[in-house]
Amino acid sequence: MAEPTRTAKLTIDDKVIDLPIYSGTIGPDVLDIRKLYAQSDMFTYDPGFTSTAACDSAITYIDGDKGELLHRGYPIDQLAEKSHYLEVCYLLLYGELPTLVQMKDFEGRITRHTMVHEQMHNFFRGFRRDAHPMATMVGVVGALSAFYHDSTDINDPWQREVAAIRLIAKLPTIAAMAYKYSIGQPFVYPKNSLDYAANFLHMCFAVPCEDYVVNPILAKAMDRIMTLHADHEQNASTSTVRLAGSSGANPFACIAAGIACLWGPAHGGANQACLEMLREIGTVDRIPEYIRKAKDKDDPFRLMGFGHRVYKNFDPRAKVMKESADEVLGLLGVENNPTLQVAKELERIALEDDYFVSKKLYPNVDFYSGIILDAMGFPTSMFTPIFALSRTVGWISQWKEMIGDPTQKIGRPRQLYTGSAFRNYVDTHHR
Ligand code: SDX
């Protein structure tokens, strides 16, 4: 990290403490508090990390006020329009857009790692058919470290690279297997002749009894959804992956931890919760009732797919996703899809309502994604697994950046203790 740009002075009682201030390329400066506890015997207090930078990173930048998202400096709307998912994977992993030769080599490496060890099929047999695919994915991805011992040594750059390629390549296969298992259909092997997104659709929807031709419209839409979910700075699941990685855990275990965190409805589970909410609303005339519930302090209901910790303007991914929903449903001839109509009217009403305007609550990446995935034929239970397979490149890129930093330390936050002070044990008959 560069030298401090200036110094802040913190006065605590009669003591003045100098805190260095560092500046990044763009975005907020940071106040370096690493020596604060040693100099003040105090911790900072920020339970939701609303004002805390946990690391420095060169991968993704978000400006919540402008509604801007950059991957290695390139804006997400340009990448969604002009790039494709595997090219964005290369960009996130290596920092630059690939040449044609580099892209062909990378695509070839990913393609040759899409199969999973045949014995991993047995893992699925141990799950109930009605298990949520996210539960299956957490288990099977964590189990990758039981099969790929030659890419678990985090101190070997070559093994780090192979683990990253394996995870990006195998997550779609595992997600498709989780889906097939949940509907009682046989697993479909990856096909090297298909591109990444088309391969995933083929593994999900093909059956052995007949040829399955991937609809190019859906493959393009799938690729765009993957691109829009690829990485997003230090969100909860990425921070989970970083914290797990900081202990030296192998990359497969770290990604399994990220999948577990993503599952929550406040995070990646919101896409499933959002479509189920839109279906529950059902018709436009019931929207006011749900707006009232969302505004009611005593009602735990929230508009799923709305609001964001960082974006206090439109989530740029939601804008692209909304355009894609219009395009895909139009091309499929289902533009009058009632769920899409409810979503658009709900967005219109909410964005005119002072509660949402004053709290700067806008649709996020999860608001429209489910409508497209539903139109493609996916059950809602597959929405978060698709988010997870798409985000794997972001997680593993951030993990590689951290592990490759020789100064990285194990993450170990402290606390404000509010429990009992010292007290002696009391025998049972004296309680
Ligand atoms: C993702 O971090 C990332 O980058 C995540 C992500 C990524 O790509 O990795 O972008 C993916 O997780 C997107 C978010 C998906 N989650 C949802 O759509 C669930 C619904 N949204 C919320 O639960 C909420 O908005 C969060 C969790 C997303 C953000 O919560 P914060 O930042 O902790 O904000 P908050 O809960 O403190 O809310 C601020 C106020 C509160 O009201 P007050 O207590 O101040 O009166 O806004 C209200 C909240 O009650 N509020 C909502 C609301 N979201 C916030 N009210 C109604 N509906 C909502 N959706």
Task: Describe the 3D structure.
With 431 residues, the protein is mainly alpha-helical. It has a domain at 6-53: Rubrerythrin, domain 2 (Single Sheet). 48% of the residues lie in helices and 6% in strands. The protein has 18 helices and 6 strands. It has helices spanning 36-40, 76-82, 85-94, 100-111, 121-125, 133-143, 157-182, 196-205, 216-228, 236-246, 251-262, 270-281, 287-295, 316-331, 338-350, 354-358, 366-376, 383-403, and strands at residues 6-12, 15-22, 30-31, 60-63, 68-71, 74-75. The strands form 2 sheets. The chain has a 3-stranded antiparallel beta sheet with strand order 1-2-3. It has a 3-stranded antiparallel beta sheet with strand order 4-5-6. Strand 2 and strand 3 (30-31) form a beta hairpin. Helix 14 (316-331) runs parallel beside helix 17 (366-376). The longest helix is centred in the middle third of the chain and has 26 residues, at 157-182. It starts with 5 loop residues before the first strand and ends in a 28-residue tail after the last helix. The structure holds s-citryldethia Coenzyme A. The site of s-citryldethia Coenzyme A has 22 residues, from loops.
Write a brief structural summary:
This protein has 18 helices and 6 strands. With 431 residues, the chain is mainly α.
- Straight-line N-to-C gap: 56 Å
Query: What is CATH's topology name of the domain at 6-53?
Result: Rubrerythrin, domain 2
Q: Which whole number gives the mean pLDDT?
A: 96
The second-level CATH architecture of the domain at 6-53 is: Single Sheet
Q: Which cofactors or ions or other ligands sit in this model?
A: s-citryldethia Coenzyme A
